[in-house]
Amino acid sequence: MKLLIIYGTTEGQTRKIAHYMEAILQNAGHQVTIADTTADPPEPKGYDAIILGSSIHMHKYHSAIKHYIKKHLEQLNNIPGAFFSVSLAVASGLDEENLEVQKITNDFLEQTGWKPMMTTQIAGALKYTDYDYFKRLIMKMISKKQGGATDTSQDYEYTNWDEVTKFTNDFAKTASQKQ
């Protein structure tokens, strides 16, 4: 199967997850093209399935992901698709945080008109060492409120790689059955 993965990232965790998915799919024998939304990604035409992913910042996904979906909406709705959302809120374990992330995803998909077969919420990472002073301070306060890590001298990765593997394999299996 010929798959396309397009992602939008701010601090790099979504890129890391997208490349992890790429490796899983390639190891399963699929042909995979991967691109960042900021790097003039290819259109979905000619691909058997697509995975789109974006991180959430300030309750919004990357505008480039939204633009890509709107530009290629008809093609996207005619091939099997999956959407993965990356945020720290998923790592909190708080029901209200997880419901909010799901609402952001549902609203986003409704606004764009894209109807992917599958969606998932993936915990991101705290990259304290990459943040400027003010962002580090804000992220520390948010993390403390949620009972998370506050030692800003190191980074914390909350991504559950087993869940990413399962989602990727489930999508590939479902998408290949649609052909």
List the helices and strands and how they pair.
Elements lengths: L1 E7 L4 H15 L3 E6 L12 E9 L2 E2 L1 H9 L1 H4 L4 E7 L7 H18 L5 E6 L1 E2 L6 H13 L10 E2 L3 H17 L2
Parallel strand pairs: 1-2, 1-3, 3-5, 5-6
Antiparallel strand pairs: 3-4, 7-8
Can you offer a commentary on this structure?
With 179 residues, this protein is of the alpha/beta class. It folds into 2 domains: 142 residues, Rossmann fold, CATH 3.40.50; 32 residues, no CATH class. Helix content is 42%, strand content 23%. It contains 6 helices and 8 strands, in the order βαβββααβαββαβα. Strands 1, 2, 3, 4, 5 and 6 form a 6-stranded mixed β-sheet that branches. The chain is globular, with a radius of gyration of 16 Å. The model has no long low-confidence stretch (mean pLDDT 93). This is Menaquinone-dependent protoporphyrinogen oxidase. InterPro entries: Flavodoxin/NO_synth, Flavodoxin_dom, Flavoprotein-like_sf, Protoporphyrinogen_IX_DH.
The domain tally reads 2
CATH class of the largest domain: Alpha Beta
**Overall mean confidence score, pLDDT:** 93
What percentage of amino acids are in beta strands? 15-25%
Class based on secondary structure composition and strand pairing: alpha/beta
Largest sheet, in brief, is: 6 strands, mixed
Shape: globular
Oligomer status: single chain
Helix content: 40-55%
Radius of gyration over all CA atoms, rounded: 16 Å
H/I helix tally: 6
Low-confidence stretches: none
**Could you say what the CATH architecture of the largest domain is?**
3-Layer(aba) Sandwich
CATH superfamily of the largest domain: Flavodoxin domain
